Amino acid sequence: xxxxxxxxxxxxxxxxxxxxxxxxxxxxxxxxxxxxxxxxxxxxxxxxxxxxxxxxxxxxxxxxxxxxxxxxxxxxxxxxxxxxxxxxxxxxxxxxxxxxxxxxxxxxxxxxxxxxxxxxxxxxxxxxxxxxxxxxxxxxxxxxxxxxxxxxxxxxxxxxxxxxxxxxxxxxxxxxxxxxxxxxxxxxxxxxxxxxxxxxxxxxxxxxxxxxxxxxxxxxxxxxxxxxxxxxxxxxxxxxxxxxxxxxx
Length: 249
Ligand SMILES: NC(=O)c1ccc[n+]([C@@H]2O[C@H](COP(=O)([O-])OP(=O)(O)OC[C@H]3O[C@@H](n4cnc5c(N)ncnc54)[C@H](OP(=O)(O)O)[C@@H]3O)[C@@H](O)[C@H]2O)c1
Fold this sequence. Notes:
This protein is α/β, with parallel strands linked by helices. It contains seven helices and seven strands; from the N terminus they run E-H-E-H-E-H-E-H-E-H-E-H-H-E. Strands 3-2-1-4-5-6-7 form a seven-stranded parallel β-sheet, with helices on both faces. Strand 5 (138-142), helix 5 and strand 6 (182-188) form a beta-alpha-beta unit. Helix 1 (20-31) packs across helix 7, helix 3 (71-85) packs parallel to helix 4 (108-130) and helix 4 runs parallel beside helix 5 (156-176). The longest helix is centred in the middle third of the chain and has 23 residues, at 108-130. The radius of gyration is 17 Å and the shape is globular. The mean pLDDT is 97. Bound molecules: NADP nicotinamide-adenine-dinucleotide phosphate. Residues 16-22, 39-43, 67-69, 94-97, 117, 142, 144, 188, 190-191, 193-196 line the site of NADP nicotinamide-adenine-dinucleotide phosphate (NAP). Residues 16-22, 39-43, 67-69, 94-97, 117, 142, 144, 188, 190-191, 193-196 line the site of NADP nicotinamide-adenine-dinucleotide phosphate.
């Protein structure tokens, strides 16, 4: 059950909203009354399908093509959202993924790309959004529990970017707290998506680390994001909140 009016009157931007966790957050925010813009990189049909579904329910959504590797495109997405809907109250930095690489074999190009998509894009978006956000604004960044615990190989670059997001968020919380804007990181454990399928090659060891014995659903993360975006969460800032089925115990 969702409260259909908890985000009524709010405008949100979600990066990487065409699939997976981002798409669930877009749909959840819209169901709770927000007008929602979201970016995508390579899934225009999925993006338009989400817009059509939200509009069919009487909501408002906007899909923006913007590769998070391009800081100009990211800043444009923030400005486009505010000009299209008239303001910006909530930013969710979600776009991401990553190519698994072993230290000793990793390339500088992959290092630069994953830091650009995960860290630079989050900085660019929150820096631009902070210029526009009123009191009550919310910055939510999707990190990973692998910033805290990394029980497998090939994850050094991914983990490093997700850890960097925690520091970036703590600083943003300090800088923006006096203006009534919060900044938090959500650190999901294994969530069943295209990036990390519950029946994929990495699934068995991940499932073994879970107290729940099963992967999370995208709706689990969307529910936490909606709570952090709501007025109720006004005293939570600078936090890195695990939602991991006990993966980090
Ligand atoms: N699934 C998990 O177990 C898990 C756990 C912890 C954290 N996370 C984090 O959660 C976030 C979403 O992951 P997911 O599992 O939902 O992945 P996913 O199913 O692969 O979806 C990724 C989404 O991000 C978009 N995206 C990827 N690279 C982009 C880029 N360079 N520019 C713009 N959009 C981009 C994709 O858009 P297109 O399809 O248009 O390219 C898609 O909408 C990521 O930051 C990931 O690190 C996931």
